[in-house]
Design goal:
The structure is a single chain. This protein is an alpha/beta fold. Among the domains are: about 10-165, Rossmann fold (3-Layer(aba) Sandwich), CATH 3.40.50.300; about 170-230, no CATH class; about 420-545; about 555-675, Alpha Horseshoe (Serine Threonine Protein Phosphatase 5, Tetratricopeptide repeat); about 825-890, Winged helix-like DNA-binding domain superfamily/Winged helix DNA-binding domain (Arc Repressor Mutant, subunit A). It is built from 46 helices and twelve strands. It has a five-stranded parallel beta sheet with strand order 2-3-4-1-5, with helices on both faces. The protein has a three-stranded antiparallel beta sheet with strand order 8-10-9. Strands 6-7 form a two-stranded antiparallel sheet. α4 links the parallel β3 (about 105-110) and β4. α22 (about 460-475) runs antiparallel to α23, α28 packs antiparallel against α30 and α36 packs antiparallel against α37 (about 730-735). The chain starts with 9 loop residues before the first helix and ends in an 11-residue tail after the last helix. This is LuxR C-terminal-related transcriptional regulator. GO terms for molecular function: adenylate cyclase activity; ATP binding; DNA binding. One of its GO terms (cellular component) is cytoplasm. Pfam families: AAA_16, GerE.
Length: about 900
């Protein structure tokens, strides 16, 4: 790992530098807890000060120097001090020496850990702070006894005292990425942030321990933490110091909270002396937080619990957890999570004897998408003779934990216990799910269809038929899928979960067909029944999200994507390691970022999706296809080609319903590699295939990609009776009357304008696309308009160029074929002259800098003006800003 970079704290750093630059010389002290980053902030601020302008002295107090006169200023004062002076005389001498060394420059005195200054040093700091030409900056630790001269610094208004809080989640993620040399998986970053509570020192110790123990791995460039916490001795010692010595009573309080948090205060006080609870709170070991009407107790820092649990003997650990379970059962498991907590404590303490309790808890954990915990509880239920029900649940959870082979073995182990249609239907569906999606066996569809006929009860048969329907959809047997799903919905006796799974199948197909309103209505009905199906089939959420995500993506509803990425399921899936859920939502998030022009975020998020889905083939191909799109949009042809190859390698044949996304990505990769003819041919063939498959929603986007390649007049579709074929623009116009939403008519208008419309019409389309936050499409439409205006030497080109500059100014790096139209063939020298002239540098100064005569500079400028189609320097800056690559790389 590299040296820890300085990340975040921009506002605080600017505040420190501003304090130094104030005419009145009022200083600044940062206070905060140990490890929060005060010292590093001070060092960065001091390092940014020019020593030719300021006389900068840095002092660092410590416990060692606190007992020595002027020990805290040993790095600042001369080694030889005059003898025979009174204490006041020595202070005057010290001030005079520092003023003399400053040689007229303003003095900046930086004091780290000023609370540890010895009395003479503290007095000297106070005297210097009173001088007109001196600014004192420094750090203090919260909760420490302060020397009176230091406290007087802010009471006398000589310095400003600022509390430095912990890093936020975003800053912590940035710090992790900086130190590890690459982005970090969102779930890993969140867990490390929570454990460190935003404290950089604790975060450092956690990362070093994880790296040293091999618990940090890198997949597709994304760092992921296994979650196993190895506490290095240095970290344990640090936490031990914070916790300090504990009486037996206070230790019991802290240990119970460590194993039970959040723990109701009323429950804790049934087990310990309330006076010990008060002591623990006063010492900052625990904190009380309100949760609805309950007052809960938590540890003051997450790592306290890790250390206390590690140091607690096994026998006492088991006794404490059994005590917690008994206490909660005595008062009654009234809250939703109480049953789950009791089961976990019983299991950990070795007192779990009721398989029904473990099974119910496992189902509850899976309903919250906590895959590791659900696996643990379901396995324990099976080991406790939970029988068929435990095996069915465990196999289902193992499927979503990317362990399909083990899931099949578990199911086969209870095949002999199937004695009724209810069990047979459940066994068939779970085994079919594992075989089809987990092991990618396409023959599963026919097998499950044949076995369904063995069921005499029509209600139980509908469960199997609902699964058969969604499997057939996924392999694009759409007519049969619709027939089966509709048959399930038509049977009143069908279980709720089966009905809603069938409804999701139809909703997904309706979205792909462009019937967005019907799809949205169906999904709303599925959501309305969530409390009735989640306990039976929590993984139905994935089918719902796939249908909903497909609709939103095809409709260009980026705000809708934002909403589902931020809802409760996303949080639960991320916290519970439900990878299929988090992976798919990350793909959607990357898609929305890409269309907004946020290519950095799109690439990082899609890489994260690839890493999360590395062990699963359900959505892995889709994740790599989105990564290929993001790389292609940035003009990175090599990365795009590599990602496309991975998409082909990891794409599961049983997920054929996703082929439109992969084939669209393939067109983008061909275009990024410079094969525009090949890309156009591929996309035209894709549009024909989508038309044949009846997937009009996808066809619209494939045709849009042809428009973006300036192929609006390309023939597509079958030959008409008169021997002609429809153009892309004509076909989009037809689809605008069939596909729901505001986007298809706007895209049809775009295609007509690109084919034979005016620049003004293209700019109007760009405004409509920008209003939908489709920044990339808006920029490309504007670029096409500008290309035409420049070609025609229109006076309106300047305004169009400004509009394009605004669109690209809010985006990251974008390099698409449409935008590359604007890249003129300037020579390297012409680019140099153009950039300097755009920055306001005079021709004479440009000549001196580039060793050219003024006449040569002017000749270069005239050629630049001609190639860019601008009238002079007034339009030159906007022209450069409106080109991809204007941010530092020559766009040639």
């Amino acid at each position: 790992m590299s040296r820890w970079d300085f990340v975040g704290r921009t506002d605080e750093l600017n505040r420190l530098l501003s304090a130094v630059g104030r005419p009145q010389g009022r200083g600044l002290l940062f206070s905060g807890s140990a490890g929060v980053g005060k010292s590093r902030l001070l060092r960065e601020g001091v390092a940014a000060l020019p020593t030719d302008r300021y006389a900068v002295w840095s002092a660092s107090a410590s416990a060692t120097t606190a007992a020595l006169p002027f020990g805290g200023m040993v790095q600042v004062l001369p080694a030889d001090q005059p003898q025979g002076l009174s204490p006041a005389g020595i202070l005057r001498w010290a001030v005079d020496v520092l003023q003399e060394q400053a040689a007229g420059r303003p003095i900046v005195l930086a004091v780290d850990d000023a609370h540890l200054l010895d009395p003479p040093s503290a007095a000297l700091v106070h005297l210097l702070a009173r001088a007109e030409n001196t600014t004192v900056v420094g750090t203090l630790r919260n909760g420490e006894q302060l020397p009176l001269p230091i406290r007087a610094l802010w009471t006398d208004d000589l310095v400003e005292l600022v509390e430095l809080g912990p890093l936020g989640a975003t800053e912590t993620t940035g710090l992790l990425a900086a130190i590890l040399g690459g982005p970090v998986d969102a779930g890993s970053a969140e867990r490390l942030f929570r454990l460190s509570a935003g404290n950089p020192l604790l975060l450092r110790e956690l990362v070093l321990a994880a790296a040293g123990g091999g618990e940090l791995t890198r997949t597709y460039g994304i760092w992921k933490w296994t979650g196993r916490l190895e506490l290095a001795p240095s970290l344990t010692d640090l936490i031990d110091t914070r916790i300090g010595q504990l009486t037996d009573g206070v230790r019991s309080v802290v240990e119970l909270v460590a194993f039970g948090e959040p723990l109701g205060l009323h429950l804790l006080e049934r087990a310990v002396d309330p006076a010990d609870v008060e002591t623990a709170e006063e010492r900052g070991l625990i904190s009380l937080v309100h949760d609805d009407r309950r007052l809960n107790v938590r540890l003051a820092h997450p790592l306290y619990g890790e250390v206390m649990r590690r140091q607690c003997p096994v026998s006492r650990t088991r006794r404490l957890q059994a005590t917690l379970a008994e206490l909660l059962q005595q008062v009654g498991t009234r809250r939703r999570d109480d049953l789950l907590r009791v089961a976990v404590w019983r299991l950990a303490s070795g007192t779990a004897q009721d398989p029904a309790l473990l099974l119910d808890a496992a189902a509850q954990a899976f309903g919250r998408y906590d895959v590791p915990l659900a696996t643990r509880l379901a396995r324990a239920a099976l080991d406790a003779d939970g029988g068929f029900d435990a095996a069915e649940l465990l196999a289902t959870i193992l499927m979503f934990g990317d362990r399909p082979d083990e899931a099949i073995r578990v199911l086969d182990s209870v095949a002999g216990e199937i004695r009724c249609d209810s069990r047979r239907s459940r066994w068939l569906t779970v085994r079919g799910m594992v075989s089809y999606w987990g092991l990618s066996r396409e023959s599963t569809v026919e097998e499950i269809a044949a076995r369904a006929d063995e069921l005499a009860d029509p209600a139980h048969r509908t469960r199997v038929r609902a699964f058969e329907a969604i499997m057939r959809l996924h392999r694009l047997d759409t007519d049969t899928a619709v027939r089966l799903a509709q048959a399930v919905l038509d049977r009143p006796a069908a279980p709720v979960a089966a009905r809603e799974l069938a409804r999701c199948t139809l909703a997904h197909l309706q979205a792909a067909q462009g019937r967005f309103r019907r799809s949205a209505t169906a999904i709303a009905r599925v959501q309305a029944e969530v409390t009735r199906w989640r306990g039976d089939m929590p993984y139905l959420q994935l089918a719902m999200e796939l249908a909903r995500g497909t609709r939103l993506a095809l409709a260009g509803d980026l705000a809708g994507i934002d909403a589902i990425v931020a809802d409760e399921f996303a949080d639960l899936a991320g916290a519970g390691d439900f990878r299929l859920g988090t992976g798919y939502l990350a793909i959607l998030q990357a898609y929305a970022a890409r269309l907004r022009g946020q290519s950095d975020s799109a690439l990082k998020t899609s890489l994260g999706a690839c890493a999360v889905l590395a062990t699963s083939r359900v959505y892995a191909g889709l994740a790599h296809a989105e990564r290929a799109q993001a790389a292609a949009q940035r003009g990175d042809a090599a990365h795009a080609a590599e990602a496309m190859a991975e998409a082909d390698r990891t794409h599961a044949p049983g997920m054929a319903v996703l082929y439109p996304w992969l084939e669209q990505a393939r067109g983008a990769v061909l275009a990024a590699g410079g094969d525009l003819a090949g890309a156009a041919k591929h996309l035209a063939a894709l549009a024909d295939r989508l038309r044949a498959d009846g997937l009009a929603g996808h066809e619209v986007l494939a045709l849009l990609d042809l428009v973006r390649l300036d192929q609006a007049t390309t023939p597509v579709g079958p030959t008409c009776t008169d021997g002609s074929r429809r153009t892309v623009a004509q076909r989009l116009t037809e689809l605008s009357e069939q596909v729901d939403g505001v986007l298809p008519p706007l895209l049809a208008r775009y295609a007509r304008a690109a084919a034979d419309g005016t620049a003004a019409e293209l700019l109007a389309v760009a405004d409509g696309l920008a209003a939908l936050e489709l920044t990339v499409y808006a920029a490309e439409a504007t670029a096409l308009a500008l290309h035409r205006l420049t070609r025609d030497r229109s006076v309106a080109s300047g305004a169009a160029r400004e509009r394009l500059a605004v669109l690209l100014g809010g985006a990251d790096e974008i390099s698409t074929p449409a935008l590359r139209l604007l890249r003129p063939a300037l020579t390297d020298r012409e680019w140099q002259v153009a950039r300097l002239a755009a920055d306001g540098v005079t021709s004479r100064a440009i000549g001196e800098q580039l060793f050219l005569s003024s006449r040569t500079v002017e000749n270069h400028l005239q050629r630049v003006y001609s190639k860019l189609g601008v009238a002079g320097r007034g339009e030159l800056r906007a022209a450069l800003r409106s080109m991809p690559g204007h941010d530092g790389e020559d766009p040639v």
